[in-house]
Structure formats: structure tokens, C-alpha cells
């Protein structure tokens, strides 16, 4: 009897200890501009729920994405490390995964915050966009799947959401790839008919084997490409629950509502134990969509409708936390993976990209508009309302912040580039310990930010910048995303130098005439850059052409190929 009593006491102590661990709800919107949110200055889009989190928590005004592009930014967020350390920073033109049947992804030796918290007894879930790979060698090995990186539950998409996924929205991918596909097809057809001409008209007696080789090339290389793009929507666009494809292609109209329902169910199912929920909204990446309740209701077309529906979703999730008395033990973090995509224009000419406020540039650039994103932390009775942090912070900082608050220890066998945010939030630190932040354009070090101690200045030096026509727009319209190497970038020697404290819009590069310490500043930045490069190991690049291209044997398909990979097993449950 005494033993049973002791076990009961021990069990109750354990339960109480478990409940003291904070819950985490990490919210990331795709391609949301810092100027799209009311608490960051927008006056025409309605984001009351996001604004309330900022008013009752901490707002980070200089919150920086570790990359201006989806895949590397998310890799850095999940691991607290620059994406170049995990091989998720491209040296080729493919800066992110665009095919679900690619073989690259987040390596197994990388540690995510979900893995660490799972070992601490947390339930872990991801709802929405993953974008860090799926399979490696076989169509069902799920090598890079979120459930093999620390998550217990997954509902969402594994790759990015493209216009090609929704009929009538055009094809962003084909706009860039079409010339290469046409060239391949034209060369193959011309070669074949030239051989026919030489054989039957000129009578050169071309060996039949050569005809066979050309036909084989057409069958092996050209036919699969034609088939893939003919059925792109069915092959590349699908929704998964855990390891199962449940909707191919997805029904998008009410997808934000279904994601919200999934988030609420996850919270209710785990309210008696600590949980980490990562809500990675598929919006507002194009193609844009909105449910009937929001379509046509904003002042900014379908883009504004989508933003306002995301805000509604966040409000529903916060309301559910409050209803179940979980809010005081739950930390909410809100951000975007990178700046708004300025190049997004619909086939009818409607702007489908967001707004980056006063900041120059957008997605895929390391101008402030591409990397300065919303950053909000909300934790009632722990974070003081109306806290504003003007110091440089990074989305990599969430990793050590979450790990330390969970009671776990940071990995000691690797460099963690992120820093714990709580000393800044609580006012124990007045300045950020990020003296330097390194801004990568894919695998190429593009710019460096120096938060000079004992100074109000924040210096930023660019080693190169993309070439584009400012008269057209402030973006790279010809290539959809700005390049990181080759003839379409301009090298700067000496580097372009800005003081963001005086020139946040990066309009006026400093010179030795306008800044007396010009060369001393650059020398300090170059020394920091040298030290940083020395700490970057050689790793297998996950974004090589070989790892990014579509591989039919890795293609996930919920039905037979004859049925063109079509299915719909998802529940239609939505919230009122």
C-alpha cells in the first residue's frame, strides 16, 4: 500500500512538472511582407489578431530571415544554423526545391528543435508547408519527411506551392523553364528529321542504331518531361497527413480553414501535456486563394483577402488556447519566412505580391525588403505588453530560445548561430549579441551586417548585388527571382556600405568622403567575414541539379498512374 501511495505521489509530481513546461505555437506565413501587417505600419489591410499579439507581447523591429528564399530560410529556422552549414544553400540556379520528387532535403545529421523537444516529452506537430524534402532513394522511404525530423504529426505539403497547382493562374515555373524545354525538344526533333533527310534524300545510309539512339533519347528524356508538365498539377501538388497522400491535387479554396481545424484538434488533443505546434501557412505564396467568407472583402484583391484569412486563422487558434486556459503557459511566435515577392503579377496584370514598407527589394534579395520580416513573441504574464526590440535578431534565434525554455540543453557538437532571445525580451541585455549577421544569396555570401558595440550605427556591406532595370520595377522580373552568381550580378569592390540606422531604405551608399571611418569599417567586416568562412564546413549540397530535378521513381502518388495520381480522402471539416 505504501509503495502504491509513493508511486501515486511521484506520478502527480511528474504531471505537475510536465505542466510547468511551456507550450510553443510557432507561426510562419509564406512570403508575407513586413509592410503587410498593421502593427508594422499597414493601414489598409485588417490584421487585428496579429496586431493584438504585438500589443500584448514583444515586437521585433529588426527581425532578420537567415535567407531571402523559402528552403534555406526554413532550414536555418528549424536548426538555428545558417543553411550553408546543412547543404541547403544552392550553388546552382535552384535556390529552393520545386519538385516533390527531388532527392535532396534536410540531412539526418541536422538537429531540429522538434527532435530536441520530443526527447523532452513534448508532442510535436507541423501543419502547412515543410519544403525541406520528402524521399531520397525510393518513393516511400520518406527520408526527409517531417516525421523523420522530430515531428509526431504532419498535415500539409512537402514542397512549395506554385501557380501551376491551381488552374488558370499561369505557370511561374514554365516561364523560366520553357525556353530550355523548347530548346531540348527542338534539338531532338531537328536531329531526328535531319537523320531522316540524310538517309532517304541524300542517301548517306545512316546506321539504324543511330536512329534508335535518337528515338531512345526522345523516349527517356523528352517524353517524361512533357508528361510531367502536362500533369504538373496532379504530380507535384498534393496534401499529406503523416505519411499518406490524402488529396492530390489539393482543394485550395478552404485549405486555410482546414489547416486551422487541424491546429485546433492538435491543441485539444495535447492540452494535458506540453506541445510544440509549428503552423506554416501555405499562403501568401502564389497561387493565391481565399475561402468564400474572405474573397473580395479586402482592399488589396486576392492577396489582401488571403492575408486577412490568415489573420482570422491566428485569431481562432489564440481563442482556442484561451478557451482551454492554455494561454498563460503558451509562447506564440509569429513571422514570415522572407520578404514579400515583388515579382508576383497574375496573368491578368493584378499584383499578387505583398508590401515591404520603406525597405528596398523583396524576396530572393538581401536588401532589407527581402530579409527584414515581422517578428512577434507573445507570452502573457511573462513578456511585458508593448515591448519593442530594435536590436538585430534572427529567425535562427527561435531554435535556442525554444530549446532553453523547454529545459533542454543546446547541442554541443555543432555551431549554433542563433541566440536566446529572452535576455533581450526581459531587458537583461540592452544590445543584441549578434555583433555580425551574414546574409547569403543561396550559397554565396552576399552581405554582412555589423551591429557596432557602443555605437548607434548598424553597418551593412554588400559584396555584390543583382542587376535589374529600375525603370521596370524594383525586382528581377526577367528571371522571377534575382540571381546570385554569373553575368546578372554586379560585384562591388570596395563593397557597398550603408548605415541602416540612418538609411534603412538603403538608398545612399556611403563613400570615404561621406563616412570618415569607411575603410576601417570595411576592414572590421572583412575580418569578421574571414573568421566566419573559416567555420563553414564542407558538406554535401542538397540543392545540386542532381538533387533537385524531378525523378519519376520518387514520385508520390495516391492512385495508379493511369488515374493520373488523383484522390481526395481529406475531411471537409472547417471552423465557423
Structural write-up:
This protein is α/β, with parallel strands linked by helices and 576 residues long. Among the domains are: 22-155 and 242-426 and 541-554, Alkaline Phosphatase, subunit A (3-Layer(aba) Sandwich), CATH 3.40.720.10; 172-232. Helices cover 31% and strands 16% of the residues. It contains 14 helices and 17 strands. The protein has an eleven-stranded mixed sheet with strand order 11-2-10-9-1-8-4-5-6-7-17, sandwiched between helices. Strands 13-14-15-16 form a four-stranded antiparallel sheet, covered by helices on one side. A two-stranded parallel ribbon has the order 3-12. The longest helix has 29 residues, at 172-200.
* Helix-strand makeup class: alpha/beta
- Largest sheet: number of strands, sense, barrel closure: 11 strands, mixed
Tell me the distance between the termini: 51 Å
- Backbone shape: globular
| CATH hierarchy class name of the domain at 22-155 and 242-426 and 541-554 | Alpha Beta
Radius of gyration: 25 Å
Task: Indicate the CATH architecture of the domain at 22-155 and 242-426 and 541-554.
Answer: 3-Layer(aba) Sandwich
The number of helical segments is 14
Give the CATH topology of the domain at 22-155 and 242-426 and 541-554: Alkaline Phosphatase, subunit A
What's the helical proportion of residues? 25-40%
SSE layout and pairings?
Elements: H1 2-20, E1 23-29, H2 48-55, E2 58-60, E3 63-64, H3 70-79, H4 113-119, E4 123-129, E5 153-157, H5 172-200, H6 208-230, H7 232-236, E6 239-241, E7 244-248, H8 255-269, E8 275-280, H9 301-323, E9 330-336, H10 368-371, E10 375-378, E11 387-389, E12 393-394, H11 398-405, H12 422-426, E13 436-441, E14 444-451, E15 458-466, E16 489-499, H13 518-534, H14 545-548, E17 567-568
Parallel strand pairs: 1-8, 1-9, 2-11, 3-12, 4-5, 4-8
Antiparallel strand pairs: 2-10, 5-6, 6-7, 7-17, 9-10, 13-14, 14-15, 15-16
Amino acid at each position: 500500500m505504501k509503495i502504491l501511495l509513493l508511486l501515486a505521489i511521484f506520478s502527480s509530481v511528474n504531471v505537475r512538472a510536465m505542466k510547468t513546461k511551456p507550450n510553443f505555437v510557432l507561426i510562419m506565413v509564406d512570403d508575407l511582407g513586413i509592410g503587410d501587417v498593421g502593427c508594422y505600419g499597414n493601414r489598409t489591410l485588417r490584421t487585428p489578431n496579429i496586431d493584438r499579439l504585438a500589443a500584448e507581447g514583444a515586437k521585433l523591429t529588426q527581425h532578420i530571415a537567415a535567407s531571402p528564399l523559402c528552403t534555406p530560410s526554413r532550414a536555418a529556422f528549424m536548426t538555428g544554423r545558417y543553411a550553408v552549414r546543412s547543404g541547403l544553400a544552392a550553388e546552382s540556379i535552384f535556390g529552393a526545391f520545386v519538385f516533390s520528387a527531388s532527392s535532396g532535403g534536410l540531412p539526418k545529421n541536422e538537429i531540429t528543435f522538434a527532435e530536441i523537444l520530443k526527447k523532452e516529452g513534448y508532442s510535436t506537430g507541423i501543419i502547412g508547408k515543410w519544403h525541406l524534402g520528402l524521399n531520397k532513394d525510393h518513393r516511400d522511404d520518406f527520408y526527409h519527411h517531417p516525421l523523420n525530423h522530430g515531428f509526431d504529426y504532419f498535415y500539409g505539403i512537402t514542397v512549395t506551392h506554385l501557380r501551376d497547382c491551381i488552374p488558370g493562374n499561369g505557370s511561374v515555373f514554365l516561364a523560366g523553364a520553357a525556353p530550355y524545354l523548347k530548346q531540348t525538344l527542338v534539338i531532338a526533333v531537328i536531329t531526328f528529321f535531319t537523320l531522316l533527310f540524310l538517309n532517304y534524300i541524300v542517301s548517306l545510309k545512316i546506321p539504324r542504331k543511330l536512329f534508335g539512339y535518337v528515338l531512345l533519347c526522345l523516349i527517356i528524356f523528352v517524353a517524361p518531361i512533357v508528361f510531367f508538365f502536362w500533369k504538373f498539377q496532379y504530380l507535384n501538388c498534393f496534401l499529406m497527413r503523416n505519411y499518406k497522400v490524402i488529396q492530390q491535387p489539393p482543394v485550395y479554396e478552404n485549405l486555410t480553414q482546414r489547416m486551422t481545424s487541424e491546429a485546433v484538434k492538435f491543441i485539444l488533443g495535447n492540452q494535458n501535456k506540453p506541445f510544440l505546434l509549428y503552423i506554416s501557412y501555405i499562403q501568401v505564396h502564389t497561387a493565391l486563394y481565399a475561402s468564400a467568407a474572405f474573397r473580395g472583402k479586402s482592399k488589396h484583391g486576392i492577396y489582401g483577402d488571403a492575408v486577412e484569412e490568415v489573420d482570422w486563422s491566428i485569431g481562432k487558434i489564440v481563442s482556442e488556447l484561451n478557451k482551454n486556459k492554455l494561454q498563460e503557459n503558451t509562447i506564440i511566435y509569429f513571422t514570415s519566412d522572407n520578404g514579400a515577392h515583388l515579382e508576383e503579377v497574375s496573368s491578368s496584370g493584378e499584383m499578387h505580391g505583398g508590401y515591404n514598407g520603406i525597405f528596398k527589394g523583396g524576396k530572393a534579395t538581401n536588401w532589407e525588403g527581402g530579409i527584414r520580416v515581422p517578428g512577434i513573441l507573445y507570452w502573457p504574464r511573462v513578456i511585458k505588453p508593448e515591448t519593442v526590440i530594435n536590436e538585430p535578431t534572427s529567425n535562427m534565434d527561435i531554435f535556442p530560445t525554444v530549446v532553453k525554455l523547454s529545459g533542454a540543453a543546446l547541442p554541443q557538437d555543432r555551431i549554433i548561430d542563433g541566440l536566446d532571445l529572452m535576455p533581450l525580451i526581459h531587458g537583461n541585455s540592452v544590445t543584441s549579441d549578434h555583433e555580425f549577421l551574414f546574409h547569403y544569396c543561396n550559397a554565396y555570401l552576399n552581405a554582412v551586417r555589423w551591429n557596432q558595440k557602443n555605437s548607434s550605427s548598424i553597418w551593412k556591406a554588400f559584396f555584390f548585388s543583382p542587376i535589374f532595370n529600375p525603370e521596370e520595377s524594383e525586382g528581377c522580373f526577367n528571371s522571377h527571382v534575382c540571381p546570385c552568381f554569373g553575368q546578372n550580378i554586379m560585384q562591388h569592390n570596395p563593397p557597398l556600405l550603408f548605415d541602416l540606422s540612418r538609411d534603412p531604405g538603403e538608398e545612399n551608399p556611403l563613400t570615404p568622403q561621406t563616412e570618415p571611418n569607411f575603410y576601417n569599417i570595411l576592414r572590421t567586416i572583412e575580418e569578421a567575414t574571414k573568421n566566419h568562412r573559416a567555420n563553414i564546413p564542407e558538406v554535401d549540397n542538397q540543392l545540386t541539379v542532381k538533387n533537385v530535378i524531378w525523378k519519376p521513381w520518387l514520385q508520390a502518388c495516391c492512385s495508379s498512374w493511369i488515374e493520373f495520381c488523383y484522390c481526395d480522402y481529406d475531411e471537409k471539416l472547417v471552423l465557423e
